[in-house]
Structure formats: C-alpha cells, structure tokens
Amino acid sequence: MSDMVQNEATLNETPAAEGKYNSSEARWYVAHTYSGYENKVKNDIEKTIENRKLHDQILEVAVPVQDVVEVKSNGTKKVVSKKLFPGYVLVHMYMNDATWYIVRNTRGVTGFVGPESKPVPLTESEMRSMGIKGQEVHLDVEVGDYIKVVTGAWEGNSGEIKSINESKQTITIEVDIFGRATSVEIGFADIQKM
User: Fold this and answer.
1) Between these two residues, 134 and 87, which has the higher pLDDT value?
2) How far apart (Å, rounded) are the C-alpha atoms in residues 145 and 20?
3) What is the CATH architecture assignment of 3-122?
4) Where are the domains of the chain?
5) Strand order in the sheet with 88-96
6) Rounded distance between C-alpha atoms, residue 70 and residue 77, angstroms
7) Main-chain dihedrals φ then ψ at residue 187, nearest 5 degrees
8) How would you class 4 by CB atoms within 10 Å of its CB: exposed for 0-12, middle for 13-18, buried for 19 or more?
9) pTM score, whole prediction
C-alpha cells in the first residue's frame, strides 16, 4: 500500500472521520503533550487557528503557570514561572471533527484526556479550581424537578433534584451505584430539564 493510501486509511479510522464530535457549546478540554512541549504545542495550535481562520471554533489555548519564589544556594531569591500541569495544554473550543483533528494532530500532542482518548470537557468545578471563569448558567428548575444529565461523567442518568447550589452552579440528584442511592453533584451546564 502506498504511503498516501495508507495515510488516507489511517485518517478514515480516526473518530473525527466518523463524525463523532459535534458540540454546540464551547468547553475546556485538556490535551496531553510530551513533557516540555507545552508552549510549542500552544504556539502551533494558535498558528493553525490564525492560518485556517478558526477563531470562532478554537477560542483559547492556555498553559497555566504559577509564579514561584526560588531561593538560590547563595540566599538570593528569584521569581520563576512554573507550569501548573506539566505535560498538559488547556483548549477552549467547540468540539467538532475539524477542531478534534487539528488539536489531536498537532506535533507534540499525544491525545486528549478522557477514556480511550475520547475528549471529556472540564467540569465547572474543575475550571473554578484552576481559576478559569465558566459561563453563568441560569436554569428554570426547582427542588423536586426531574432532570437528565446530558454531558460529563454521569451522562445518561436522570433523577429528581434534591438540592440546588446557585453559587457553585450545581444541583444534587441521587443515582443508583451498586444498587444504592448515592447523592452526586452535577453542574448546571451538564443537565437538561425533563
């Protein structure tokens, strides 16, 4: 098989070629990179966004850093930026076949974080803990209403709302885990009223 035909066959086996990714909402995803390649991956994705005019699909690429004071052996102090998550790049994007392919095939990217490299977006609470401002979601739901979980780890589950936390933008429902009713907290962005 020639290289061109082989590459085409490989492309057709990717999830993007099967039309698996079509998100109507921009979410934050985590791409795994080779260690030390985080800034190069960020720059390469940003160049691709610029070249292909994808500003409306891939909104932001970030390598979170934190300023740390290092004390040298001679007692002098120096402020340096350290990566919070070495080996990872955060990408705020609409997940679709094209954006999946662009990020996944950027040199230095080994895959998305998620089961079997299927991209799983960050939850609202994960974003808040990293200092990323999520979107405010306003729902017309009350305690006692029934909802369906449409994204995230509990996708496909449904249940009655037991409590609502407006400040954290979460609701609590009970799901069946190993034959037991267990309370779980789910973000507003991950649910739909039934």
Assistant:
1) 87
2) 31
3) 2-Layer Sandwich (3.30)
4) 3-122, 146-193
5) 58-62, 88-96, 22-33, 109-112
6) 6
7) -70, 150
8) exposed
9) 0.56
**What gap in Å lies between CA 4 and CA 130, rounded to an integer?**
42
Instruction: Report the CATH fold assignment for 146-193.
Output: SH3 type barrels. (2.30.30)
Location of structure tokens 């803990």: 129
Locus of tokens 């002098």: 76
Instruction: State pLDDT tens for residues 28-77.
Output: 999 999 989 999 999 999 999 999 988 888 988 988 888 877 787 787 88
Place of tokens 């850093």: 65
What does the DSSP 8-state code read for residue 123?
P
Question: Which residues are bridge partners to 96 per DSSP?
Answer: 22
Show Cβ contacts of residue 129 under 8 Å, excluding neighbours closer than 6 positions.
Answer: none
pLDDT band for 12, please (50, 70, 90 cuts): very low
